[in-house]
Amino acid sequence: MIAEQQVMPIGKVGKAHGVRGEVTVYIDNDVFDRVDADYLVLRIDGILVPFFIEEYRWRNDSTVLMKFCDIDSMQQARDLTGCEVLFPRHLADEEGETDIRSIVGFELYDGDTPVGTVTGIDSSTINILMEVRTPQGTDILIPAGAELITSINMEQQRIVMALPVGLLDL
Asked: Do the beta carbons of residue 10 and residue 27 sit within 8 Å?
């Protein structure tokens, strides 16, 4: 069974393409372009399922037409529409570079105080923000500036920061 911490989100499956079982995959993380992988993981009804890649071709900078093994009809491809696409972390880590989106799922601490879980990354502006869900269920934004980060433990999936006083009260 694949554990959540073993994968990182890289996109979503769009609609079926053609009648051979191809799907459109919208990629929002360049790790798929940088690292070769024999398989991707799809979240189907909350379960992480590996799918081996038969072939793929880039349609543009962020869209891939992909054919998974054993998905051979338009109906099978349609059943995958909307599924989240995840990439195996162990393959991404081999490159030696870590993409900021790989910290999704990590626990965030302000010193020794738990703040919440990183649920997403907002990189729409020059100032990258971590989307964090607190234990109370509130969603907050925390700047991902290197000067605020004390340590990142990839194995424990833990980020320790030194947040400015009052930031969590906003």
From this structure: yes
What is the average per-residue pLDDT within 83-109? 78
Q: Is 105 helix (H, G, I), strand (E, B) or coil?
A: coil
148 vs 42, 110, 121, 145, CA distance in Å?
A: 33, 10, 16, 6
Token pair 């070769």 is at which residue? 36
Please write the tens of the pLDDT for every residue from 114-142: 999 999 888 878 888 999 999 999 999 99
Q: How far is CA 133 from CA 106, 118, 126, 138, 168, in A?
A: 11, 7, 22, 6, 12
Whole-angstrom Cα distance, residue 41 to residue 90? 13
Q: Give whole-number Cα distances, 24 to 14, 46, 142, in Å.
A: 5, 20, 32
φ/ψ of residue 167, rounded to 5:
-60, -40
Helices (H), 27-117: 31-34, 74-78, 89-93
Partners of 11 in the beta sheet?
27, 85
The DSSP code for 126 is S
